[in-house]
Specification:
With 147 residues, the protein is of the alpha/beta class. 46% of the residues lie in helices and 16% in strands. The protein has a 5-stranded parallel β-sheet, with helices on both faces.
Length: 147
């Protein structure tokens, strides 16, 4: 794993998938912090996306889960230091890290199963940023966020 800790957060639609991912993390001795929610009671996904985004630094990754992954991805990407990628298969997760230096992964709890989610996460947390020509592109994203 490339980072020391993984933060994970979800809304009510992502609760069941998050629980299974956390069991996988425990089994694999992957350090993580669960930021909630811890039930299927309806809640607002932006609250948890913003909470997770506020925790992310160079030593951490984030995983956000809502029904489709779209809402949490949009909310997280409102933060200038966040590059959140919505991934529904492992190649996208690998390329998000390799070419885009993504630091947060968004998943759709109602769209993918636990085995696929774990495969996506594994590729995401194990793939290094390629740097090189991609650094300039990442800098252009950051500049545009300040407009």
């Amino acid at each position: 794993m490339l980072r020391k800790i993984i933060y994970i957060a979800n809304d009510h639609a992502g609760f069941e998938l998050k629980q299974k991912i956390c069991l996988f993390f425990q089994k694999e001795h992957i350090t993580f912090t669960d930021l909630g929610v811890n039930s299927t009671q309806s809640c607002d996904y932006p609250d948890y996306a913003h909470l997770l985004a506020s925790k992310i630094d160079d030593t951490s990754f984030g995983i956000l889960i809502c029904g489709s992954g779209i809402g949490v991805c949009m909310a997280a990407n409102r933060h200038p230091h966040i590059r959140c990628a919505l991934c529904n298969e492992s190649l996208s997760a690998k390329l998000a890290r390799k070419h885009n230096d993504a630091n947060v992964l968004a998943l759709g709890g109602r769209l993918i199963g636990v085995e696929l989610a774990i495969d996506i996460i594994s590729h995401f947390i194990q793939t290094p940023f390629e740097q090189g020509r991609h650094i300039q592109r990442i800098q252009k994203i950051e500049v545009n966020l300040q407009c």
